[in-house]
Design goal:
five-stranded mixed beta sheet; six-stranded antiparallel beta sheet; 2 domains; Nucleotidyltransferase, domain 5; 252 residues; single chain; 38% helix; alpha+beta; 9 helices; Translation, Eukaryotic Peptide Chain Release Factor Subunit 1, Chain A
């Protein structure tokens, strides 16, 4: 069972489809913390077949892998004939297990609530950051910095060029950190921060940005896929930030 990326619009459409399906539903919501701390404990009477099937899906490698990558928890809906599991783009707020009518309200609220989101996209030599209110951009800044490519001829020249490249990267990150703080330190509150680009950049960038350090708990564990940080990639990065993962299976 492999997951498929789904935009907010696709997730909402799937909820519509599930609600239109007559069935005796079991609806499960699990916070990220609960997924890490033996979620089967939240499923009473695991010996009952449906709950056993739900537990097996939660514990499956694909679901565990995407849940860990997102860090937002899981919503799962079992009709008896099919199971739809969703790793949402934003955190599940409360654990719950209900039976009877399908309970999509927590997932709908999670997807439809307007959020203040920061995107920080950085690749070596280019950066762009933006503040969004919902899907509307409120602040935006971009920049570049020259970084020499590593020297490949070997010997003392290679070592010298490597030191120069390292110094250029450090100075580049300091400039990016200053711009992040200039643009965002006065912004409060912020709901979510998404980093995109070279995933190895985030840790050293935290050292150069007080805003990122102060809001580190809000940084998504996901790294958005960005080949080069430019203004043109912002819309796609925001769409990815607002996307989740869907798993659909048919119990045996």
């Amino acid at each position: 069972m492999e997951g498929k990326r789904a935009s907010t619009e696709r997730l909402l459409k799937l909820l519509d489809e599930l609600e239109a399906t007559p069935a005796a539903w079991t609806s499960v919501y699990l916070r990220a913390e609960s997924l890490l701390n033996r979620p089967e404990r939240l499923l009473p009477q695991r010996t009952e077949q449906r709950l056993a099937e739900i537990a097996d899906i939660i514990e499956s490698d694909p679901v565990q892998r995407e849940s860990a990558r997102y860090g937002t928890g899981l919503a799962l809906f079992h009709s008896g004939d099919s199971v739809s599991a969703m790793v949402p783009p934003f955190p599940v707020g409360e654990d719950s297990v209900t039976t009877g009518d399908i309970d999509t309200a927590p997932m709908r609220e999670l997807l439809q609530r307007s959020r203040r989101t920061v995107l920080v996209l950085v690749t070596w030599g280019a950066w762009v950051l933006a503040l969004y209110e919902g899907r509307s951009i409120q602040r935006y800044k971009k920049g570049t910095g020259h970084i020499h490519a590593p020297h490949k001829k070997g010997g003392s020249s290679q070592a010298r060029f490597a030191r120069r490249t390292e110094e250029q990267r450090k100075e580049f990150l300091k400039r990016v950190g200053r711009h992040i703080d200039e643009q965002l330190l006065d912004v409060d509150p912020v709901d979510h921060i998404f980093f995109g680009g070279n995933r190895l950049i985030l840790r050293p960038l935290l050292e150069d940005s007080r805003f990122l350090r102060q809001h580190s708990a809000l940084i998504s564990p996901r790294t958005l896929l960005v080949k080069r940080a430019t203004r043109d990639v912002l819309d796609g990065a925001l769409k990815e930030a607002h996307s989740g993962v869907v798993f659909v299976s048919t119990p045996h």
